[in-house]
């Protein structure tokens, strides 16, 4: 070891330790670290001397350099901790720190009213034995129209102006696009709902948006009845509102149901007196429904002589408006957090 050039190494260690102890701030400490232990620092540079040593002396010298680096590193870490502690202490003692000031409050999040109603509907329908399903927003012409007994030249296509994609697919105009899919997926008898966003290429007003939410419901069994359909719809509404609500039933035309109905709700924004939501009529179209057309059952792979079904297409956005007395549908997807932070709860109470 006597032959090794360790004197300079130990001198370096002494000066590194001294500089470490002398550093009065974290910044100057970082400078010391760079100077001695950085890639080009003076301790690391000692390694370059290995090449000038006898082969037999190299391991011992290499170890000595590493030991020095470890000791200096340890002292730097110690010093860094004590400088940080001193910094904290100083900040607490500084005259501009007032520990009695209230902290920064973390705002409480809120669920969107659509989510509240969506969760509530899921709960109601699950309790009645329905599956809750999810189908794609981008769908084919077949599932959105053809399979629902609406061929290309059918005037009913104009009832729902469509956003077409360049690849021939479309943004579904209604959740009914899931009907044929469900029939192909599940063996009857079954009951299912599928909530989701739908899109229509139309201008907006207080009760119409181009993007809105519906919930489709479908029930397939050997025998189903209009009476059961209507009573299920009334149960659904009284569960959501927690009381009986005034509804009216009218005949409605949809190519995929026969007979078809329109179930309207007495407008809860104006109490039935007339407003911009109900177009001064006192009634809001909410829940079209009917018995599934035999052609749709066939498209779903079911024999209409053996199976029957009912379906409904609930305007969920409008239901939310009625439930919370929202006077313009465009608030729902307007993106203003102040709007939905007014709603509280989980929808399940
Ligand atoms: C349909 O979409 C049918 N698929 C419903 C259906 C399903 C009928 C199953 C029979 C059997 P309609 O276009 O009327 O129907 O829309 C259904 C509901 O969605 C309406 O009653 C209304 O509440 C809501 N709705 C329709 N257009 C809009 C819109 N632009 N903005 C907000 N809600 C709308």
Describe the structure.
There is one protein chain. The protein is an alpha+beta fold. The chain folds into two domains: 6-93; 113-343, Bira Bifunctional Protein, Domain 2 (BirA Bifunctional Protein, domain 2, 2-Layer Sandwich), CATH 3.30.930.10. 37% of the residues lie in helices and 16% in strands. The strands form two sheets. Strands 1, 4, 5, 6, 7, 8, 9 and 10 form an eight-stranded mixed beta sheet that branches. A two-stranded antiparallel sheet has the order 2-3. The protein is elongated and about 105 Å long. It starts with 5 loop residues before the first helix and ends in a 9-residue tail after the last helix. Bound molecules: adenosine-5'-[phenylalaninyl-phosphate]. Adenosine-5'-[phenylalaninyl-phosphate] binds at residues 160, 174, 176, 200, 202, 208-209, 212, 214, 254, 257, 260, 285-286, 288-290, 311-313, 315, 317-318, 329. Adenosine-5'-[phenylalaninyl-phosphate] (FA5) is lined by residues 160, 174, 176, 200, 202, 208-209, 212, 214, 254, 257, 260, 285-286, 288-290, 311-313, 315, 317-318, 329.
List descriptors.
349 residues, alpha+beta, BirA Bifunctional Protein, domain 2, two-stranded antiparallel ribbon, 10 strands, 37% helix, binds adenosine-5'-[phenylalaninyl-phosphate]
What is the CATH domain class of the largest domain?
Alpha Beta
Query: Order of SSEs, N→C?
Result: HHHHHEEHEHEEHEEEEHEHH
Poorly predicted runs of 5 or more residues: none
Q: Into which percentage range does the β-strand content fall?
A: 15-25%
At the third CATH level, what is the topology name of the largest domain? BirA Bifunctional Protein, domain 2
Quaternary structure type: single chain
Give the biggest sheet.
Answer: 8 strands, mixed
Instruction: Give Rg in angstroms.
Output: 37 Å
Distance between the termini: 81 Å
Summed over residues and divided by their number, the pLDDT gives a mean of: 92
Hetero ligands: adenosine-5'-[phenylalaninyl-phosphate]
Structural class, by secondary structure, is: alpha+beta
Please tell me the CATH architecture of the largest domain by its name.
2-Layer Sandwich
Classified in CATH, the superfamily of the largest domain is Bira Bifunctional Protein, Domain 2
Number of strands: 10
| Shape type | elongated
Number of helices in the DSSP assignment: 11
């Amino acid at each position: 070891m006597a032959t090794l050039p360790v004197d300079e190494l130990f001198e370096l260690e002494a000066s590194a330790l001294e500089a470490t102890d002398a550093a009065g701030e974290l910044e100057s400490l970082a400078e010391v670290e760079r100077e001695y232990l950085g890639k080009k620092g003076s301790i690391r540079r000692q390694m370059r001397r290995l090449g000038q040593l006898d082969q037999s002396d190299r391991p011992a010298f290499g170890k000595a350099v590493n030991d020095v680096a470890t000791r200096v590193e340890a002292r730097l870490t110690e010093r860094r901790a004590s400088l940080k502690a001193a910094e904290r202490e100083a900040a607490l003692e500084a005259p501009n720190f007032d520990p009695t000031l209230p902290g920064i409050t973390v705002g409480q999040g809120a669920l969107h009213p659509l989510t509240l109603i969506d969760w509530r509907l899921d709960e109601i329908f699950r309790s009645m034995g329905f599956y809750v399903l999810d189908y794609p927003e981008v769908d084919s012409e077949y599932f959105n129209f053809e399979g629902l007994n609406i061929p290309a030249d059918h005037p009913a296509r104009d009832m729902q102006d469509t956003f077409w994609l360049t690849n021939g697919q479309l943004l579904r105009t209604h959740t009914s696009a899931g009907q044929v899919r469900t029939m192909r997926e599940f063996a009857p008898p079954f009951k299912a709902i599928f909530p989701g966003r739908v899109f229509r290429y139309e201008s907006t007003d207080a009760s119409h948006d181009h993007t809105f939410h519906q919930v489709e419901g479908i029930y397939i069994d050997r025998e189903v009845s209009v009476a059961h359909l209507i009573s299920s719809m009334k149960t659904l509404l009284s569960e959501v509102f927690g009381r009986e609500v005034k509804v009216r039933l009218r005949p409605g035309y949809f190519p995929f149901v026969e007979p078809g109905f329109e179930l309207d709700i007495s407008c809860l924004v104006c109490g039935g007196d007339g407003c911009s939501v109900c177009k001064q009529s006192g009634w809001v179209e909410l829940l079209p429904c009917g018995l599934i057309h035999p052609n749709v059952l066939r498209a779903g792979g079911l024999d209409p002589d053996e199976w029957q079904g009912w379906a409904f297409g609930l305007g969920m956005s409008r239901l939310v408006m009625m439930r919370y007395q929202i006077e313009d549908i465009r608030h729902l997807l307007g993106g203003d957090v102040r709007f939905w932070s007014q709603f509280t709860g989980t929808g399940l109470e």
